[in-house]
Specification:
Layout lengths: L1 E4 L4 E3 L12 E5 L3 H11 L6 H4 L4 H4 E4 L2 E10 L7 E9 L4 E5 L4 H12 L7 H35 L15 H38 L7 H64 L14 H23 L3
Parallel strand pairs: 3-7
Antiparallel strand pairs: 1-2, 1-3, 4-5, 5-6, 6-7
Length: about 325
């Protein structure tokens, strides 16, 4: 799909329709070969292909060719929807046009398109449209990191705080499924955070490159510095959340270890409780001819009472010592 944005409005270009001369922002979403060829022929620029955008070396992502600045960045998507992914997006900045190329839907682009529809002045020039678009992307990225932070706070409360205040003073057990769910949520949060951090770093590199690539008379220096500072603060926040995630992961693994130890302790106590009665039963189960208790009327109840007593005494001792 090929969308056009001008200082007077926007529309989707139909097949075989020529490119308008007043187009400022040209948004290529999953472009076909015909659409790429139309833009290249009309503007005299090379549009990066999907293979070009997959390159990871800086020289293939940030360069100037024939007076056209090309920047390919990695953007995080789906953070708010709990299925984070990354996609490559290329910005091709010419003297009169801004061309964006992407092969995935990116919410920040849709948000900026809506803003440009309400306020066409945002697309009065390619560099102005680029900075307004990057500002929207950074705002959306900040929203995503804030969402991850709230999720981490929720996980922290689920990990350490008792759901039932009346349970104070008693150990509140967690099931294996609950602990597995915590680990799953931690993994999802860490995945989203790593993609958000990668996006912030990629945008910072692109803006640092744009500082030197943009014309000095364009008046973008202050805007670029502001965006770089914003991205630096987002990176710091992501690092802080990452440290919390690491702590929560260690704490959750510790809780799993405690639960496993508690289960082993139950079996150990059960073995200890039933061992003395087994000894008593074994003694009275021996077939000796001369055992005085065998002839007593109360011999059987006495044996049962002894077995019950020797079972209770170890349990009571462990409770008194605070081992249970």
């Amino acid at each position: 799909m090929l969308r056009l944005f001008t200082a007077t409005g926007n529309r989707v270009l139909a097949d075989a329709e020529p490119l308008p001369a007043d187009a400022v922002w040209i948004d290529l979403v999953n472009p076909t070969e015909a659409e790429e060829a139309l833009v290249e022929a009309s503007l005299g620029i090379d549009v990066p292909t999907a293979d070009d955008m997959a390159e990871i070396e800086t020289s293939s992502r940030l360069y100037i060719e024939a007076g056209v600045t090309v920047m390919t960045v990695t953007l995080a998507t789906g953070i708010m929807a709990e299925h984070a992914e990354t996609c490559a997006v290329s910005f091709v900045v010419g003297p009169r046009h801004l061309v964006t190329v992407r092969y995935q839907e990116v919410k920040s682009f849709e948000r900026f398109a809506a803003q440009a529809t309400r306020n066409p002045d945002l697309c009065s020039g390619p560099l102005g449209a680029l900075m307004a678009l990057i500002d929207t992307i950074v705002d959306r990225l900040a929203d995503g990191i804030e969402h991850i932070g709230r999720e981490v706070d929720t996980i922290s409360r689920a990990t350490f705080r008792r759901a039932d205040p009346s349970a104070a003073g008693r150990q509140q057990r967690r099931s294996n499924l609950a602990l597995q769910a915590l680990l799953t949520r931690l993994g999802a949060a860490q995945d989203s955070l790593s993609k958000a951090r990668e996006s912030a770093v990629s945008l910072t590199r692109a803006l640092s490159f744009l500082q030197f690539a943009a014309p000095k008379d364009a008046g973008l220096a202050a805007q670029i510095k502001t965006q770089i500072r914003d991205l630096a603060s987002l990176t710091d926040q992501a690092s802080f959340i990452g440290a919390n995630l690491t702590f929560l992961l260690d704490a959750t693994l510790g809780l799993i270890s405690i639960e496993q130890t508690a289960v082993q302790k139950i079996f150990s106590v059960a073995s200890l409780v039933f061992l003395p009665p087994t000894l008593v039963a074994g003694v009275y189960g021996m077939n000796f001819a001369h055992m005085p208790e065998l002839g007593w009327t109360l011999g059987y109840p006495m044996a049962l009472a002894i077995m019950l007593l020797v079972a209770i005494l170890p349990y009571a001792f462990f409770r008194w010592r605070g081992w249970l």
